[in-house]
Amino acid sequence: MVLILETDRLLLRNWEEQDFAPYHAMNNDPVVCEYFPDLHTEGQSRKVIARYREQEQREGYSFQPLIERATGAFVGDIGLARVEFDAGFQGATEIGWMMQRQFWGRGYATEMARALLDHGFAVLGLTEVIAFTVPANARSRRVMERLGMMPDEAAGFDHPNIAEGHPLRPHVLYRATAPSAPGTVEPA
pTM here? Predict the structure, then answer.
């Protein structure tokens, strides 16, 4: 299954060659990548897209290009993916996003992330989706909160793919759980 979703303003579709240039530029914008440890070389950007395509084939979903429907412009990437690194939640499904600066402040991340969560719970049968970022990343944390994700204070972690002592290694974790099935009673 290839995940393709549409909202009123956005389209989530498969990767195409035309996505590489804006994706690579986004991964080299120091403002966009403020909370990432490194900017990407061209080779690194190509490897990431290849990994996303492989995840999509294996899992049925991954991070994909986010396109503005009105203009066809590449907005960024967003998606669901299995956590592959060694952490207390390895194997869980994460949601994440990265947007080009010129599209910030339009609610695009929240709009498509909400559609992805709904799809993950209703269609993919996920029971929980997590998100994580560095504590200082207020923009992403606000999106997580707008989505109804709850911070898991006890599950903060040091990201194992970031060097020890690096200021971006500590991360916070948020969780969203699937809505209860009709007729079930929420615990008190």
Answer: 0.89
Number of domains in the chain: 1
64 is a domain residue: yes
> What's the Cα-to-Cα distance from 148 to each of 25, 102, 159, 178, 180, rounded to whole Å?
31, 25, 23, 11, 15
Domain of 161? 5-177
Indicate whether 104 belongs to any domain: yes
Residue of 93, 73, 63, 57 lying closest to 18 (CA atoms): 73
84 pLDDT band (50/70/90 cuts)? confident
Question: Is residue 188 one of the residues assigned to a domain?
Answer: no
pLDDT tens per residue across span 97-118 = 999 999 999 999 999 999 999 9
What gap in Å lies between CA 29 and CA 12, rounded to an integer?
22
